[in-house]
């Protein structure tokens, strides 16, 4: 009789471990008391298991009252050395530029930046206002939504999606939630 209950406890413990590791969809979840420290800008975090079709990353935040720009980058952690950071592959770099009202995107492969893509139907960010960016990973592209509206697609330049396992956020914003 005791043996099955021990088995059950072992399974529950394993389930709890899995639930804890998957509690935050895709990103390492910090301890509750560390959230304000962890979500400070500039932010750098790991994407659990890398990217894959069907995975999405959600960034919620508030634009600064007097914003200049902010960047969101999905990168490969092949190298974490500070000196080699300039050569890390960047699968997607989103750059919101407030003076020009542009939301640019590009990628860097083997140290070379791709051509910047700039076409957008409208500039979605407003100073001192909250926003929600969703990056949906599909087989051929990233599909970017802001506040529930699809803005553009960005076709993959980094072909190994699983290697895209870091996110970096910097600039004129506060991060309120990542998932």
Automatic annotation (TrEMBL):
The keyword Transcription does not apply. Coiled coil: none annotated. Residues 43-179 form the Galectin domain. InterPro entries: ConA-like_dom_sf, Galectin-like, Galectin_CRD. Residues 1-18 have a biased composition (Basic and acidic residues). It comes from the Eukaryota. Keywords: Lectin. Residues 1-29 are annotated as: Disordered. The keyword Repressor does not apply. Does not bind lactose, and may not bind carbohydrates. This is Galectin.
